[in-house]
């Protein structure tokens, strides 16, 4: 199902594991996000397990857990799944233990690749079997050039993720995908990707936790929610990060969330499902119609209005009537 669904019970009761994105969901840069800590604490107290899943491959799980704990979200290292761990798992699908891997990234990626049984090398002249590339703030032209030399000589290029941007406290900065793009431009070789929006990291985290009913929570449609769709897991899109309410209304089928919330308090609430209502769609007291490619609110406000707008716009798009104009909704 590619549309919003409903839950008569709070999501924290309906699902046994939350796969929680970090930047834009649990925190923003080094700053807390309002309602994140108390909502996650309440969900955990009610029996929902948490695994924090991040496309950032530069830091160790212990560092991530310490940051979360410092923001009043207690976490252990084994509750963190990084793109570095997913990258190492992807390498193991093709390479034998002991294979040489040139790591271009932070210490988190180095640790994960070593823990997977590979020999980490620092030069293309070491004849690496693969290049593992992840974001780190210290990366320089020399590092990207070394990766390009190795890939050009036949090494398998594996990216921890392909995020073009990275949210920081000051705004959006170039992400790992932008740096990977430099190597791709130099070599003409398209890399494999371990992180979101691929399904591998979510499936690995859910399997490790022994989850029966996992729920993905994210702020980016093109990574978090697309990854949830790819993994076959329902996704909750919260409006505290990159993708806006307007973005959700215009989402393509492969990036549509199953649930929508203003923030992480949505974990603790039931979710009404939008329903068709004559020429429009309703959710709670909200009602929206689409005419001539324009989303037109008829009644209601708040998150239910966004839900109704998503249902109306997605329905129109799927019928071949794409939406071209979306008003301010929330």
UniProtKB/TrEMBL annotation:
Pfam families: Hydrolase_6 (PF13344), Hydrolase_like (PF13242). InterPro entries: HAD-like_sf (IPR036412), HAD-SF_hydro_IIA (IPR006357), HAD_sf (IPR023214). This is HAD hydrolase-like protein. It comes from Myceligenerans crystallogenes. The lineage of its organism: Bacteria, Bacillati, Actinomycetota, Actinomycetes, Micrococcales.
